[in-house]
Amino acid sequence: MPPSDSPLYPRPFYRAVHSLRGFTLVELLVVIAIIGILISLLLPAVQSVRESGRRAQCGNNLKQIALALAAYQTGKRVFPPGRMGCDGWTRDVCTNNPGSARPGTSGFVMILPNLEQQSLYDAFVPFAKGAVFPASPGDQSDGTTSGWRTPPIADAIKVRPEVFVCPSSGTMPTYRTTQNATGCYALVQGSRGPSYGISQTLVKHYNNGMFCYRTTWRRANVRDGMSNTMFVGEIVEGHTIASANVWSLGARHLHSMRSTDNPLNTRPGEGVFVKVGGGGGTGSDPPLYGYKANGAFASEHPGGALFAFGDGHVEYLSENIDLISYRALSTRDGGEVLSR
To answer: Is the dihedral of CA 45, 314, 329, 186 positive or negative?
Structure first.
């Protein structure tokens, strides 16, 4: 040990050297544990803030869509149908319609110009060779839709406009192997869903909501009031066969058209679905097309989902909403007394 009076080791310096030391392993572990606890406490709050932002953006998308539908109605004097044409039906409004009058084009395509998507809309026009997504199989045999999938249209149905995408949704960008772009929203058909099977009148062409096959409705038809009538809502898992949701295609219980037959947030493959024979069913009843299309609205937001109403406002409905009230909100002229 150097002497205290050594010129090489003055007493103050010697003591300072020996007073310097690092953290012990135990101290480091304690610090790491404290940091871990703080992160675990803060993470839910951070996630909640992020979800709040995503939900706000999702609501903004729905509002834009509702306003676009209103703008379309102002110009055309009617709202667009959920699906622009018939399918294989040959009666009533579909009597003697050629294939070109049976497109499966969704109402979302028709409002693209009102969503600042004019160039994308122009890629669909003039709905080449008769129709976009013509009904099949027989309706393509008359030649009026032959060659409908032109290169511009083939590219257009692969585009996924951001306004149709909810940031909270887990829906993948394309539907299975078709590469057709998916969306996270659907138009409200009404309260008649898979319990009514695939009825041409009750479900497809004359459902009790605002968006049907081919049939169009005016503002005057909304006797329940625009603020009490849902126009657009959220869906989940739009890339899967049980909840397929290609935004440019319209189809009952699936693509861009849903109902309130099943409770809000019924997950794909659950609840009442279309079964063999055209009626509804649950459990082990065999589905009509090999998949359980329940046509339900749902979201990835905790506890509920967002809907846009006819007057343009967006509302968050709890998944615990009374089923009678929920269905009443989806009809245009039911005359129900609502409490929500």
So the answer is: negative
Tell me the Cα Rg of the chain: 28
Query: How does DSSP assign 197-213, residue by residue?
Result: TT-IIIIIIS-SSS--B
Q: How many CB atoms lie within 10 A of CB 116?
A: 12
From CA 308, how far away is CA 291, in angstroms rounded? Answer: 28
Measure CA of the first residue to CA of the last residue in the chain; give whole Å.
Answer: 85
Strand partners, 309: 230
Distance CA(306)–CA(67), nearest Å, equals 15
**In this structure, are residues 189 and 82 in contact, taking their beta carbons and an 8 Å threshold?**
yes
Name residue 304's beta-bridge partners.
318
Instruction: Evaluate whether 104 touches 94 at the Cβ level (below 8 Å).
Output: no
Q: Which two tokens stand for residue 172?
A: 């993948």
Please name the helix (run of DSSP H) or strand (run of DSSP E) that holds residue 74, with its range, or none.
helix 25-76
Whether 123 contacts 72, CB under 8 Å = no
- Contact present, 163 and 61 (Cβ < 8 Å): yes
d(CA 133, CA 248): 9
pLDDT tens digits, the chain, 340 residues: what are they? 455 555 555 555 445 555 556 668 777 788 888 888 887 777 776 666 677 889 999 999 999 999 999 999 999 999 999 999 998 888 898 988 888 888 999 999 999 999 999 999 999 988 877 778 888 655 666 777 878 888 999 999 999 999 999 999 999 999 988 899 999 999 999 999 999 988 999 999 999 999 999 999 999 999 999 999 999 999 999 999 999 999 999 999 999 999 999 999 999 999 998 887 666 676 667 787 788 899 999 999 999 999 999 999 999 999 999 999 999 999 999 887 665 5
Give CA–CA dist 34/204, Å, rounded: 60
Distance between CA atoms of 177 and 95, rounded to whole angstroms?
34
Taking a C-beta distance cutoff of 8 angstroms, is the pair 298, 267 a contact?
yes
